[in-house]
Amino acid sequence: MTETTSPLERERAARRERMKQHVDSALACLDEIPDPVERELAARVLADELLPDAGRQVKAVRTAAVQELRTERGLKLREVAELYELSVPRVDQLAKGK
User: What letter does residue 73 receive in the DSSP assignment?
Assistant: First the structure.
């Protein structure tokens, strides 16, 4: 990163790296399984159960964040959209848990 990188940008980059390391660790668990049948079964659990559940949890976090901005801070959809750099319809979807 350059010297012009803000503290917030550095914090976001560090957070992203930590999350990536966790995902990489889950994938590395698959590489540790010597038996191809067991490895495939574990990969299926990751793909079919764990990742979709994580996706639902992420969606809930995003929905709660939008709702917090709307209710506690009184922001309009347009204002939230500007903060998130998303379209107003997408923010509306997030607010509705979609």
Answer: S
Residue type, 94: L
Give the Cα separation of 58 and 76 in Å (integer): 22
Q: What are the φ/ψ torsions at residue 80 (nearest 5 degrees)?
A: -65, -40
Q: With left for phi above 0 and alpha for psi between -120 and 50, is residue 76 left, alpha or beta?
A: beta
Q: Which two tokens stand for residue 20?
A: 């990536």
Instruction: Give the pLDDT band (50/70/90) at residue 1.
Output: low
How big is the CA angle at 71 (ends 68 and 76), to the nearest 5 degrees? Answer: 100
- Please list the alpha-helical segments (H only) found in 46-76: 51-71
pTM: 0.77
Which residues 6+ apart lie within 8 Å of 69 measured at CB? 75, 79, 80, 83
CB neighbours of residue 95 within 10 Å: 19
- Residue range 70-80, pLDDT digits in tens: 999 999 999 99
